[in-house]
Design a protein that fits this description.
With about 325 residues, this protein is of the alpha/beta class. It folds into 2 domains: about 170 residues, Quinone Oxidoreductase, Chain A, domain 1 (Alpha-Beta Complex), CATH 3.90.180; about 120 residues, NAD(P)-binding Rossmann-like Domain (Rossmann fold). Helix 2 crosses helix 8. It comes from Acidimangrovimonas pyrenivorans.
Length: about 325
């Protein structure tokens, strides 16, 4: 038996329940992982509320780190005692331990702590595929990034600085603005008192930016479009304020813009690609270009409180659960 968070209906944080569940032994191609840190991501809220439907009852959570306790038949590149993390596979990371497909496990190199890995696997690989694959940034580029003080945002600040790109970040408070600047964000827009598109035009001498990375969604859609250059790109990588509904004619009117809604699974598979991405992320950490530790820690049994903090935008940086 092991403790795990499950939910039987969609709704608010109160639907998350701590239970004792059967664990068992890994079967063919599987491994049993005992978690040390469990990442809390905004996508978990999408599953909890039903925005992303799941069969119920179900577990919740996309990524965690820990140690391999046992492997099933046919598993050759993962061994008991290995430190690993994951970001793909079935929901259910909010647990003390679980059985996982071995082919989604990512070995954690020496020199990267479990706490750092818990903040960097999903969030760092998100920054990697946004900046290196979806719309590859290069030295000298100026771009707009929403939620610059969030878990992915703080890694994005550092990655942009390492690339020599100029990041214009949005935050909700002056306190978050200071955190974003400290992590390498060149220009910070405080959305509670500044007009996003107007400030972007001021910063870029009226030109706008070639790309906007927008994880907020509904509330920032028009500001994102109005910040883009002609033939610019809107990378809609999240909907924390609500879903994005857009008329394709609006993209034409705003300057023949293009828009993409990327998903990690289409960039991090097959396994060789996932490991290649992880190698680059861990390399950024080991070289000192990116530093990341959890800013908020909650016990596993307080998963609902962690969701409340994340939804209220009371958090800065990464949030983890400790089993």
């Amino acid at each position: 038996m092991t403790r795990a968070i499950r939910f039987y209906e969609t709704g608010g944080p109160e639907v998350l329940k701590l239970e004792q569940v059967e664990l068992g032994e890994p079967g063919p191609g599987e491994a049993r992982v005992r978690h040390s840190h469990i990442a809390v991501n905004f996508i978990d809220i999408y599953f909890r509320t039903g925005l992303y439907p799941l069969p119920l009852p179900n577990g919740i959570g996309s990524d965690a780190v820990g140690v391999v306790e046992a492997v099933g038949p046919g598993v050759e590149d993962i061994r008991p005692g290995d430190r690993v993390g994951y970001l793909l596979g079935p929901q259910g990371a909010y647990a003390e331990a679980r059985i996982m497909p071995a082919d989604v496990l990512i070995p954690i190199p020496d020199g990267v702590s479990d706490s750092t890995a818990a903040t960097i696997i999903m969030k760092g690989m998100t920054a990697q595929y946004l900046f290196r694959q979806v719309y590859p940034l290069k030295k000298g580029d100026t771009f707009l990034y929403h939620a610059a003080a969030g878990g992915v945002g703080l890694i994005a600040c550092q990655w942009a600085r390492a690339l020599g790109a100029t990041m214009i970040g949005t935050v909700s408070t002056d306190e978050k603005a200071e955190v974003a600047r400290a992590n390498g964000c060149a220009h910070v827009i405080v959305t509670s008192r500044e007009n996003i598109a107007e400030r972007v035009r001021e910063i870029t001498d009226g030109k706008g930016v070639p790309v906007v990375y927008d994880s907020v969604g509904k509330d920032t859609l028009m500001a994102s479009l109005d910040s883009l250059q002609v033939r610019g790109a809107l990378v809609s990588n999240g909907t924390s304020s609500g879903p994005v509904n857009i008329d394709s004619m609006l993209l034409a009117v705003k300057g023949s813009l293009w828009m993409t809604r990327p998903a990690m699974i289409h960039y991090a598979t097959p396994r060789a690609k996932m490991l290649e991405m992880a190698d680059e992320v861990f390399g950024m950490v080991l070289s000192g270009k990116i530093a990341s530790e959890p800013s908020q820690r909650f016990p596993l049994e307080e998963a609902a409180r962690a969701h409340e903090a994340l939804e209220s935008r009371a958090t800065v940086g990464a949030t983890v659960l400790i089993p």
